Amino acid sequence: MNYFNVARATRGLVSYVQKWRSKKAVTGRSKIVIAHDTRHFSKEFARLAAETAATHGCDAVVFDGPRSTPELSFAVRYLKADAGVVITASHNPPHDNGYKVYFSDGAQVVAPHASGIIAEVNSEAMISGSSEKSGMDERGQVITVGEEVDRAYMERLETLILDREVIAKARDLKIVYTPIHGTGSLIVTPMLRKLGVNFSIIPEQDQMDGRFPTVKSPNPENAEALKFGIALAQKENADLVAATDPDCDRLGVAVRTASSEMKLLSGNQIGSVLAWYRAKTFFDRGILNKENAHRGVIIKTFVTSDLQKVIAEKFGLRCIDTLTGFKYNGAKLNKYEEETATPNYRELSEEETRRLRLQKSSFYIFGSEESYGYSGADFVHDKDGNAAVIMFCEVAAYAKSKGMTLDELLDEIFREFGYFEEKNYSIYFEGADGAEKIRRLLISYDESPSRQVLDSPVTRIRNFEKETIRDVEGDEIPKEKMLIFELADKTRIAVRGSGTEPKIKYYLFGARLPKNRKLSREELARAKDEIGARLEALWNWLQKDANQRLAK
User: Fold this and answer.
1) Which residue stretches of 131-266 are H helix?
2) Which of 25, 138, 458, 476 is most buried by its number of CB atoms within 10 A?
3) Is the pLDDT of residue 136 over 60?
């Protein structure tokens, strides 16, 4: 990230948007919304992007300070903009920064927009800086927004609460929240107050600071990032620690167990509890029923727990698998919105859009990915840490109302639907020859796949780069270098290269379904031990196999 590339990317984006509008015969001036997080130079990069857009005849709407990535997605839709940009590197180290682009639907760009924008950015005119500037009378405006968009966003967030009474009654529920020096406290703090949640915020981490000085990494997946929160939770006997990353699109949690210890939940566990609670509560409140259940949909990635698929099936809902990345979730939401055939859809209330989706399209219940991203409604077309905090607080209040800790609630879900465990690992290949090793290893898995892993035969291999794979709605999955191996013992292995780091990622999945109506407590305990040991042995085998493949 530097000033040249930010200006170049913005010129390319504006050029693409203007050509797109012309192709669609849209009149008037184009408009983009620009947000930034708390990182070093984020404010300066955002200011440059706005000035560059205006210079090239596009109105640029900028926030009066740092804002979260999901609020940028909301603002693109709320302000009826053509595109959006957020300057952020999410939960990466302090020295990183990035430029993330959204289109008019409020989702990260996918085909054809992604390739079209890249082509414009890489054109000779953009590289040389010779793209035509607008005259003074054609120059766009730079418009500053703030509280109005915040209020509108929070009004929508409030609709995510499905049972206000369960929160109101949980007076002894205590939450600890940390934004880890990021944007989260701008929205989460007033939302928790508005909902009447009893919470504390970690003062040392409630300071916007791009150095993220109190953590090694501002990633809420990591136990180290929740160290301050867990310490405060122990001191105050809190039930839950909720942590969001600097751009507040991810949520990590630690929960108090029945033995009074603080335990981290995985991204799969957080997502599965939320999916179960929201599906159950929509039925309990009569919004979903047997007649309209076929409209209900849960969206997850291929490498996210299949517990959510089993939950969906038992409630009579669809479960859609997508590739990794919430942009594919956003593409689905855009499709469902278009199916309502309602031009003013984004101006309607949540109740009105809900009725339309249940009558004409698909009703989005919940979406998640194993990497701690969650979404509960379509007014934001991206993962939303602000939404995730308040949704999970409602689940915590529900567990409290039933006299259970959150880990006990999770165990009850496992007993009813089956025990599912997932392990994620990576093999890093640093240095000049690292990329070549990654390439060779991925080719080896493709051309010479294992026919047996440990003592279990491989029963199916899905190649997402070479096969035509469709989801349950019949939509074709975009091509990606990913393989999924299914074994006779019902375990699965997904292998893919990382898009951002020099590593290959391995996702291991194990499950034990109930033979009768429910798993007994003894059966659940045994499943945890056996599947945990199986996945550990599987990972040891995969590491040895990778070394042998590279030695050939």
Assistant:
1) 147-158, 164-169, 188-195, 227-236
2) 458
3) no
Nearest 5°: the CA angle 383, 389, 391 is 85
- Other beta carbons within 10 angstroms of residue 159's beta carbon come to 15
pLDDT for the residue 124: 82
pLDDT of residue 174 exceeding 70: yes
User: Domains of the chain (ranges plus CATH)?
Assistant: 3-145 (3.40.120.10), 153-265+386-413 (3.40.120.10), 270-383 (3.40.120.10), 418-551 (3.30.310)
| Residue given tokens 């009850």 in the structure block | 412
Q: Which residues contact 56 (CB under 8 A, 6 or more apart)?
A: 10, 11, 14, 15, 131, 132, 133, 134, 140
Degrees to nearest 5, angle at CA 376 with 373 and 381: 70
SS3 breakdown of the chain: % helix, strand, coil, rounded to 5?
45, 20, 35
Cα–Cα nearest to 69, from 44, 49, 39: 39
Nearest to 87 by CA among 136, 138, 47, 141: 47
Q: What residues are annotated to the active site? A: 90
| Helix pair angle (385-401, 188-195), 10° resolution | 30
DSSP letter at 530?
H
Q: What is the pLDDT of residue 125?
A: 81
% of the chain at pLDDT higher than 90? 93
Q: Among 215-229, 428-442, 478-492, whose mean pLDDT is lowest?
A: 428-442
Q: Are 68 and 187 in contact (CB under 8 A)?
A: yes
H or E stretch at 393:
helix 385-401
| β-bridge mates for residue 484, sequence order | 462, 494
CA distance 27 to 32: 15
The amino acid at 234:
Q
Band the pLDDT of 430: cuts 50, 70, 90.
Answer: confident
Q: List pLDDT tens digits, range 470-520.
A: 999 999 999 999 999 999 999 999 999 887 778 999 999 999 999 989 999
- Secondary structure element (H or E) that encloses residue 520, with its range: none
* Separation CA 217–CA 248 (nearest Å): 14
* DSSP code, position 162: S
Element housing 216 (H / E): none
What phi, psi does 28 have (nearest 5°)? 90, 180
